[in-house]
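Hi everyone,

Forwarding the result from last night's run.
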Amino acid sequence: MQARPDLVKDIYLIRHGETEYNRKGVVQGSGIDADLNALGQRQAEAFFAHYQDLPIDKIYTSALKRTHQSVKGFIEKGLPWEQHEGLNEISWGSKEGKSPNTEDDLYYKNLTKTWREGHIHVQSDQGESPVEVLERQKPVVNLLLSRPEEKSILIAMHGRAMRVLLTHLFNAPLHHMDNYAHQNLCLYHIQYDYSAKEFRLVKGNCIIHLADLPESM
């Protein structure tokens, strides 16, 4: 049985566009408030050009400016906009902002392997665990669902945080978060059915709007 259209919320969830930290392979996390680079700005422009006619009722972003800049076109249309720290990227603690090296690469590889093995309470050094990220996301999700009058919303956030969020929305084990692919300025279109009280994936990791952009600049 299909849900009644008036009982469905469309959620357009994106990862922010590219920053220089992304390009160089440097971890940002919640402690690095980086701007989009030139390619990231073009990604944001391409996303807006492709989806500007969507009937968006509200924009939600993290508190970090790379998400604000990724939906700049929609904000400039005068759409209502809220920032929530609960949508911030995971804190990578002492590892944030450091240039890639063999030791750190091994650290990240081992840490994410530990998470995939189910040890999701393990924190990054002086940072957060996936469980802690999820716990700060849950109140934001509850807030979004408490507003059924917002029938179509746009959410801009971050790679690791998105993976955590998607496991929650689709009732997947948190240690399966790496099953959700993402890249800069990708789109997940999700619907929430209020009658069934469940989230449904319409499209995932969609980048059709970036088809005409170079991979780097």
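The two ends are 47 Å apart (CA to CA).

Cheers,
N.
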